[in-house]
Amino acid sequence: MKTESYKFILERRGGLKIIISIIFLSITGIAALFIFLNHILQRIFHLPHVPNTKTPKDFELKYEDILIPTVHDKKIQIWDLNPQKKAPVIIGVHGWANTSDKLLPAAKYLVRKWRVFLLNTRNHGGSDDDSYTTIITYKDDLIKTIDYVIQKTGSPIDIILLGHSLGGAAVLYTAAKDARIKGVVSISSFADMEEMMRTGFFKGRMPRAFITSMLTYIEFRIGENLKRLSPLFTINKFKSPALIIHGTKDETVDFENMNRIVKSATRENVHQLIMKNHSHSSLLEETQLAVEIDRFLSTYFSDKNQPPPIPKEGSTKEKLE
Predict the structure, then answer these.
(1) Domain with 20 in it
(2) Looking at the structure, do residues 186 and 198 belong to the same domain, yes or no?
C-alpha cells in the first residue's frame, strides 16, 4: 500500500514538473515574442536624426528660430518666418525623414499674405530626439505648436495646417482632434495607414501570417486603431475646409490615394488639386503650388463674412501642369 502511494506521489510530482515546464516555456515564448516585436517596432518607427539642409536665411527670409517644449520633456524647433505679420496663421510640417526646409519654397511665396510657422517634429531639424516617430508624435508636436502660436499672437486667429507626406496625413488627424484648426492643406498623403504598412511589410518579405499580428501589436503599442489614424477616416472627423494635393507621378504614394480621400469625404468643402508630372516631393518646388494654396486659402479666409464656394476638384477647375 505504501509502495503504491509512493508511486502515485512520484507520478503526481512528475506531472506537476511537466505542467510547470509548459508554463515556463509559454512565458518564455511570450517574452521572446514581445522582445522580437519590440525589435521590429524599433526598426520601423525609430528614425535617426534628420538635419536641416537649408534655413529660411537661404531664401532671404527674416525669421525667428524658436525652441518650445513638447511631450516627454523634449523641445521642438519652430521657424517663425514673418514675426510681425498680422494675418491668419499657416503651420507647416514636413514628411518622414525630411525637415521643413522642404516647405521653404512655398513658404517664401505664402509669407506675403499669411503668417507662416514651420515646424520640425522630434528627430528632425533642430528638435530633440525621441524613441519613436509616428503620426501620433506629429500630432502631439503640432498641438504644442498651436498652443504656442495662440499664446504668442495673443488674440483669436484662424489657424491652417499644411503638411507633406506623413505630415499631410498628420494634419488631417490633428484637425480631427483639435477644433481650433480652421483649415487643412494635405500634400502627397497616403489614404489608408493599415494598408500602407501591410504593403510595406509584404514588400519587406515579412511572412503574411505574421503581418496581421504585427499590425495588431503596433495598434496596442501606439494606443490607436490604424484605420482611425487614416485620412480615409479622419477627413470626415472635422468640418473645416481641406485641400488635398497630389502629383500624378508620385513614386512613393500612388496618385490614386488622393482620389480615395476626396471621394470618401461627405462634405462639399473638401477639394483636390492635381499636380501633373510631379513626383512625391518635386511639387514642393513648384511656384504654382503656392499660388494655388494661396488661392484656396483666400477663398475661405478673407474679410468676407460668407466666402463663395470653390469647385469640388480644386481651387480652380484646371489641372496644373
Answers:
(1) 1-45
(2) no
